[in-house]
Amino acid sequence: MGRGPSIAARKGAEDSRRGKLFTKFIREITVAARTGGGDPRSNARLRLALDKALAANMTKDTAERAIKRGTGELGADQFEEIRYEGYGPGGVAIMVDCMTDNPTRTVADVRHAFSKNGGNLGASGSVAYQFAHVGQLFFETGSDTALEEKLLEAALEAGADDVVSEDGYTEVLTTPEAFEGVKQALVAAGYAPIEADVTMRPSATSAVAPEHADALRKLIDMLEDLDDVQKVYSNAESA
What domain range is 93 assigned to? Predict the structure, then answer.
């Protein structure tokens, strides 16, 4: 009977994933501080980045060093924000947000991931029109229609733009500017989101044919694994 990976090997793989995740958090915190200042009370982007990093067990010292790099207290921040757009297998629209100190390297890596997995990198604006910049909060409501109604009322009262319930989950949508206020109001009212972020939401989703599903999944995984990639968005129904 074959043996699976050793505990040491599994831990090594997990440590590697954790390291990549922390690298992405550090870059986001640094750039957020550079563009909006180092005070999370007045910088919503920084506050969101810190919330996600600390929830993933990043130490406060690490987060504070990233803020200081962004504000210039620990040297100049060299990261540049770049968005790449393209199409994956089956014509699925994909956007890739990157932070990099070497755009030449980054575009080569992103282009390689697309071409290797049956996609192609497009021009700026080629797919962005299919997405909206929104605040998005998910809640698990199950079959409790009374809970759905109470959440709907609380969300709209807090300033949400839309609330959608289906398959046991409720999605609350806000403008990016209203996201933090809506989130805080709902948490204070006893509604804790299972996921909350400011993201790019597709205006319509695209069904993925079975023959394209595996290649699309590999493409997205390969993109997300790149050090310079912060987030990958697609309009696929499943990937």
Answer: 80-128+204-234
